[in-house]
Structures
1.
Amino acid sequence: MERAYLDHAATTPLDPRVLEAMLPALRDGWGNPSGVYREAQAAHALLDEARDSIAATLECAAREIILTSGGTESDNLAIRGVAQARAHAGRHLITSAIEHHAVLHPMEALEAEGFELTVLPVDGEGFVDPSEVAAAVREDTILVSVMAANNEIGTVQPIAEIARAVKERNPRTVMHSDAVQAAGAIDVRPDALGVDLLSLTAHKIYGPKGVGLLYQRRRTPLEPLLLGGGQEEERRAGTENVASAVGLATALRLACEEQAARTAHARGLRDALWRELRERVHPLRLNGPADFERRLPNNLHVCFPGVEGESILLQLDMEGVAASSGSACSTGSTEPSHVLSALGVDADTAHSALRLSVGQSNTEAQVEQAAAAIPQIIERLRALAPV
Ligand SMILES: Cc1ncc(COP(=O)(O)O)c(C=O)c1O
């Protein structure tokens, strides 16, 4: 049976072109970039090249890029780094209720340490209202963190508007955005978004796992998370992962260069899947924006009231379809998704959620395979456990 991998929001397969770019770096760039000898210089040159390529893609300066181990570290560095650097100026932080746990948990940890946290609500489709952000910003607000696109329901936030509203209220407030899910789908150049800090990760854009970046606009106050050597201009200690940096640079370049084609491909498949499901399954609840122009092009998130999401996933797997009940990290948890709760979805309905995220490797046939399997599975499960 052919497999249909419909969980690209969890992670993506490695693009063969990324692998091709990484292999020489793995083979020849093994030296420690901090050394002075030839082997070290070879590694250093590859690292510089990767950073320059990232800077060219994001249209920023190379020294504004801090290489990290991925989205989680970038988010933690942004949040803890600003809190530590600016605690003397204020202790108020703002975020939204539907952030990834890589943002929410460090925010909550800071709250437990004595910072004041405002968690902004979202509307029924997951949108943060820029005027509500502006109203929440105070003289002592040191950081606002709102994600560019949500990993569960695909809501694309009006980040440029939010950033503008924040800066108008308090130009010293640092604006961070987790754009981990947004790269390759929307314009993530920091200047286009108007942010000071931006988190990205390679493994959501057909790059390797364990590498990401934090964009740090010049003069944005930030204390390091990891202490040790002086790498990344004293902002992130640890011997650099040269081959992964090359992988990230290549994956990011391709994601931006091919954004239009990738978006069109994903949208075509996602829309076909939605048309089929909407026609063949009742009742069915769409989560996230009904206006598909305002959600990630590859994201479909639905609830099938009366059915357990985990049961759907297991049956789908047997039918050759890989999908998710929401965010990868909350799979297996009995708590309803905090994102769905924030939308006002009741716990029972939230437990019936299915996230389908298509990608580059998917074909129309695979989407048809899923569209044929899902209605049958839902019917079977509903017959087993009538509501
Ligand atoms: C929105 C968002 N932020 C952060 C992360 C964490 O990124 P990483 O897996 O690279 O640590 C993820 C991954 O699921 C994500 O979807």
2.
Amino acid sequence: MSEVTIIGIGAASYVRTAMMICEEKGVSYDFETIEFHSPAHLEAQPFGKMPALRHGNLLLHETVAIGVYIDRTFEGPALQPDSALQQALMFKWISSIADYGYQNLIRDLVIPRLVGPSRGQEPDEDAIKASLPKIEVFLKQAEDTLAGSDYLAGNSVSLADLFLAPIIASVMRTPEGQAMVPQYKSITRWFEAISARPSFAAAHPPPAQAAAE
Ligand SMILES: N[C@@H](CCC(=O)N[C@@H](CS)C(=O)NCC(=O)O)C(=O)O
């Protein structure tokens, strides 16, 4: 029997983050697919998002909360730095990803470019074009950080890297991402390193469930 259950609909970015967190910690997990916005979904995640985590009687949502909980509850390599500065950098990056990166890279680019068309929706080319400068701002910030350290919060993998890796992987599936990301040498070096980790391979490609970003 697995130690925890990750609840979601498909292999969306934050679901992959939760999977990578479990993989990095060596925590066994099941993936439970639920019907979107069903009572079971809203019980696990009242805001109708994914993922949620079940551990015994605990149901927990918010990917950062899931990450901190798994990191502190289970044995395995620490995914949060010790120093106050690096801890602050880790949360700075998680917050930046949640508030700006996910919106600009996934909602404004990956979903209209890849997910919408897979459901028969035409992409709004003007809206995609308008999103590119904001994406550049985000990538420039990541590039500056990664020019000074191997990972986002120092020289070891932290939760922040596990948030960003699935997002960059999805962006790299768009023509815009393929044109932009390689221009950032430090992001490229970081992505080569993080995508070579077994945790990344385990979370990508997606499980059999319908893909969603
Ligand atoms: N604050 C939530 C956000 C979760 C979230 O936005 N998940 C996306 C998938 S990566 C989702 O559920 N998308 C479906 C939707 O917005 O309808 C967390 O950190 O877990």
3.
Amino acid sequence: MPGNTDDRRHAPATERNRDPIVSVLQGILPESGLALEIASGTGEHAIHFARVFPGLTWQPSDPSADARQSISAWIAAEGLSNMREPLDLDAASEDWPIAKASAILCINMIHISPWEATEGLMRGAGQLLETGSPLYLYGPYRRADRPLEPSNEAFDRDLRSRDSRWGLRDVEKVAECASRQRLRLVNTVDMPANNLSLVFRKE
Ligand SMILES: C[S@@+](CC[C@H](N)C(=O)[O-])C[C@H]1O[C@@H](n2cnc3c(N)ncnc32)[C@H](O)[C@@H]1O
């Protein structure tokens, strides 16, 4: 259903992290095809990426009806021809409403959802992506070789107090989960504010 522009929601962090994310995406996204975003939230990232990468068709998604309403409202307001209406997609589901993608992105979801969402994300990405195609993750993580930064330690505590199934994930465990679906971690990029970009490729 077309969105009403008044339903646009705004997450200020997206304006801060979108261009550092674009810098990483420039090195990994294909020129054309379909880019599927999991957990699009307000839709602001997808809108920005659709402008910066006009050769790709952007497919946002989110299991939250409120989020999808905001995404539709942004689409209606921006009038971008390379953006599709959002899908109702729960990463943890066995049955995704889409069969193929040239690239998959998931920003700031895996620490704020149960581990089953990460397992489902990897399972879905393993099924949808062709050999060589990228899966891009962004967010705060734990790393085996260094202590958690104080800001991320506090964030982790806050997440766990809100839902005991949430919390910052170990990069190594995420990579292991991905490898079971033939997704290999090929690059880890330090990002502003103690975040990481993780780039996987389908083997
Ligand atoms: C912190 S917001 C991030 C939104 C956006 N990617 C951003 O960075 O602004 C987390 C999003 O994850 C979505 N989410 C939570 N569990 C999910 C799941 N199992 N599958 C897909 N999305 C999920 C929520 O609906 C929410 O929109």
4.
Amino acid sequence: MKIAVIGTGYVGLVAGACFADTGNTVYCVDNDPAKIEALKRGEIPIYEPGLETLVKRSTAEKRLFFTTSTEEAVTASEIIFMAVGTPPLPNGEPDLRFLKAASEQVARAMTGYRLIINKSTVPIGSHQVVAEWMKPFTKYPFDVASNPEFLKEGTAVDDFLKPDRVVIGTDSDKVFEMMSDLYAPFVRQGNPILRMDPVSAEMTKYACNSFLATRISFMNELSQLCEKVGGDIELVRKGMTTDVRIGKHFLYAGVGYGGSCFPKDVQALMATAERYQVPMEIVSAAESANARQKKHMVSHVTAHFGKDLTARTFAIWGLAFKPNTDDMREAPAVTIIDELHGLGARIQTFDPVASENARKIMGTRGEGIRYCASAYEALENADALLVVTEWNEFRNPDFGRIKSLLRQPVIFDGRNIYDPAKLREMGFTYRGIGR
Ligand SMILES: NC(=O)c1ccc[n+]([C@@H]2O[C@H](COP(=O)([O-])OP(=O)(O)OC[C@H]3O[C@@H](n4cnc5c(N)ncnc54)[C@H](O)[C@@H]3O)[C@@H](O)[C@H]2O)c1
């Protein structure tokens, strides 16, 4: 099939590369010329494991093309995926400016029937809205269907190639058939392609992310209670996850959830519910618990060092909102660093891939933040280590070296990746989350 993907970001590039990998001809469009030029030179603008290999293979085979021209891509394609960003507005509703502009550009470029697929996470009812935006700009027939994306940054390629399920929201048999053919290579192990009406498909995406965010916030609230009553959230978690009704995923206490999806999608669901005057107390509580949790690690630091941190330097390991990505959107590290910096501390950070994006967001706060070239450099003369993102390389570090580089052997473990007893035995003051 011939496919255009409008928006070549974390979702669009992965989707485009995976569709091309199964033999389709794919045109990835972005209105950021620097991004497209880089991709044409074979440079991948984001960090996503496995993506570079796919992109290079399909580019070499002339199945994957990059362009800034929506017209070129739409003229050549039967199916158009919308994968532009839908970032949150200050009131929590998604900003649909990019989707609206892209819809008009696609409509203008049509030269016959086209199937338009909303892959961006969009408010419930957007399939109709996109159709209304397009109608004035084309005389050709088209369908708009919903196909929400469930990939996780860090494992996006694997998730796309082997999805748990594919959701297709359409009232048309013909559209469902086209989409089923397109996705058939990805569900050969029997994972379902679920057909539903477009509203339910749009809602499914928000439901999943809000539910996962709620699980995390539930564990984070429990972890704070554990700290007061003297329990260990890690043991509680194990006791819970062995119950098949609960399952084992997204039940880790930590520094709060971040990223481009959970915070935004939770807010968007709340905004929709408010418009329809339906109470969403659970989701709203998950959101406020998360805002509290992002600051919780700092309360551990001030409990140990006091509230005046002017003479203190802290090493921060991990900046990205989770491992295996360079995405800094809504990353808890930003809140933690801002809070510590606000109390006068100097910060030395290390992240294997996200430092450049972090610098774009935070800068150096007047030389208050240093971005180091290695994890151990960040420790030099620091008063404590804070582990904020659980990159694999932080899991089994040289604790002897850590101890010799730090001014004081103090570790705040925001992801509970270390064994408290072992660290205490080695002479560290250790503080995890909820233990
Ligand atoms: N990132 C994720 O993990 C994830 C997962 C599932 C769903 N989603 C959803 O997918 C959508 C895209 O997310 P993302 O993280 O890939 O965003 P992103 O910001 O990484 O990428 C969006 C891209 O669209 C481009 N763009 C904007 N307007 C355009 C236009 N008119 N024409 C061409 N290109 C245009 C931007 O330049 C940018 O490169 C969002 O709605 C998001 O909620 C994201």
